[in-house]
Amino acid sequence: MPINLSGPTAGPRRWGRAQDRTVTDPYKRTKKLHEPTVCPQCGAVYHEGRWQWAERPAGAHEELCQACHRINDDFPAGIITLSGDFTKLHRDEILHIVRRQEANEKPEHPFNRIMKISDEMDRIIVTTTDIHLPRRIGEALKSAFDGEATFDYDQDGYFLRAEWRRDD
Question: What is the DSSP string of the chain?
Fold first, then answer.
């Protein structure tokens, strides 16, 4: 019996931006690491082909993970700028949501980390080690407080510049 390929699942597989081979992340490894490997800085463990939070195995190799490498180089993959009158008045609530998004992501995705939170005049700038966390922060703030969120992905590189703003 022939298989019908004309349904909604027919067609090429859809990948996210992270799997797009034309988008290059200078911190992404091209070869697999020896297993197990531990990041000496944060303690993440490379096991079964991916980095994860686990107990350090005996005799593990040591290699800096991509997130720690980015942090050491001060080279973020994402930046989200939070601004507007509302931001000044509700700074603590906003930062609670920012940190909560990281706390939600980090257990399953060791590379989704906040690098730095900076207060600059009338805005807050959050830098991250990946492109997913700034988007989730912007979406969470929009959901919680409304405002306007914009996301601008670098055309050729692994970088996201996001903004969230609410004026009241």
Answer: -PPP--STT-SSPP--GGG-TTSB-TTS-SSPPPSSEE-TTT--EEETTEEE--PPPTT-EE---HHHHHHHHT--SEEEEEESHHHHHTHHHHHHHHHHHHHHHTTT-TT--EEEEEEETTEEEEEESSSHHHHHHHHHHHHHH--EEEEEE-SSBS-EEEEEE---
pLDDT digits (tens, 9 = 90+) for 81-128: 999 999 999 999 999 999 999 999 999 999 999 999 999 888 999 999
CB count, 10 Å around CB of 32? 9
